[in-house]
Design a protein that fits this description.
The chain is of the alpha/beta class. Helix content is about 60%, strand content about 10%. It has three domains: about 180 residues, Glutaredoxin (3-Layer(aba) Sandwich), CATH 3.40.30; about 55 residues; about 80 residues, Tetratricopeptide repeat domain (Serine Threonine Protein Phosphatase 5, Tetratricopeptide repeat). The chain contains 15 helices and five strands. β2, α4 and β3 form a beta-alpha-beta unit. It holds the Pfam family Thioredoxin.
């Protein structure tokens, strides 16, 4: 990753979402509302350096806040392995920079409108929003020194061009707030499902698969377990794969169904969802018998990984139906 120039010439036009002037105005209103809050509530708001953002909260959490502090957006997904490398770096730096920027995490599977609005081509993808204007920073995982360099350039640009310097946060206050939040009672969890998630996060894919299967044996309709099982199986299939060799094998042997399936798996893990679906639909179209059924079943499995309500899944299901019938 090469850090981008922080000039505003690369800004994405968000005028269709909200003009910068309006964002500033609403941010001032939000500041006034916070000032009227009790001190404890103000402190809690001040230490929210990392926030999960959805489409409903985008205006308040990103556009309005961007008039006070640079907002860095991390587009990610649970199944994306590079995201799991980058996100902890961004979260740690958000705490370290102590209010000079805010990190907004957006799950692309749950927020397709935002994914499309920003023109994201693959994940992880990192953008910034300053005074209602969006700036693409970089795509893909990157080592911490390069991420720091980009963030430093962003903060400098925000201060020089917009006079936005963020709000310093007391590290001890932030730590106390996190401890208080962690101490809040949590709803009871399914221990087997929790063990499956822990195994998946630890990279124990075989253990995760077995644990998710155990959950589904007792609860066949458990959607969380179905999603986790699909993710674990997908990651196990691509584990240790040489991407260049896999893609070359598929290009050299278009009729090799296994080779096409392997590339589709790599595409999905890399965030190229439409490419994965398109490849498998084409494979279904030009095959017959067992080969066609193999490609069809794999495509349905990938639908489960992405989620049945995802617009890309809905579109691909329609395309698959046209090919089959």
């Amino acid at each position: 990753m090469q850090p981008r120039n922080m000039s505003m010439s690369g800004a994405v036009d968000l005028s269709a979402v909200k003009a910068a002037a309006e964002a500033k105005q609403k941010a001032e209103q939000a500041r006034a509302q916070r000032a009227a809050q009790p001190a404890g509530q103000q402190a809690a708001a001040a230490v929210q350096l990392v926030v999960d953002v959805d489409e409903a909260g985008f205006e308040q959490e990103v556009l309005q806040r961007s008039a006070e502090v640079p907002v860095v957006i991390d587009f990610w997904a649970e199944w994306c392995q590079p995201c799991k490398q980058l996100s902890p770096i961004l979260e740690r730096l958000a705490e370290e920079y102590a209010g000079r920027f805010v990190l907004a995490k957006i799950d692309v599977d749950q927020n397709q409108m935002l994914f499309q609005q920003f023109g994201v081509q693959g994940i992880p993808a990192v953008f910034a929003v300053i005074a209602g204007q969006a700036l693409p920073l970089f795509q893909g995982a990157a080592p911490e020194p390069q991420v720091r360099q980009v963030l430093d350039q962003l903060i400098e640009a925000a201060e020089q061009r917009f006079g936005i310097v963020g709000t310093p946060v007391d590290p001890e206050q932030a730590a106390a707030a996190r401890q208080q939040a962690a101490a809040q009672p949590q709803p009871p969890a399914n221990p087997t499902l929790a063990a499956a998630h822990a195994a998946l996060d630890a990279g124990d894919l075989g253990g995760a698969i077995q644990a998710y299967e155990n959950v589904l044996a007792d609860e066949p309709a458990n959607l969380e377990a179905k999603l986790g099982l699909g993710q674990a199986r997908l990651l196990k299939r691509v584990q240790g794969a040489d991407a260049a060799k896999v893609r070359k094998a598929a290009a050299d042997n278009p009729s090799d169904v296994a080779a096409q399936l392997a590339v589709a798996d790599l595409d999905l893990v890399g965030g190229h969802v439409e490419d994965a679906f398109s490849r498998l639909i084409s494979t279904v179209q030009r095959t017959a018998g067992d080969d066609r059924d193999t490609a069809r079943v794999r495509l349905l499995e990938l639908f489960e990984v992405v989620g049945p309500d995802d617009p890309r899944v809905v579109a691909a299901r329609g395309a698959l139906s046209r090919v089959l019938f």
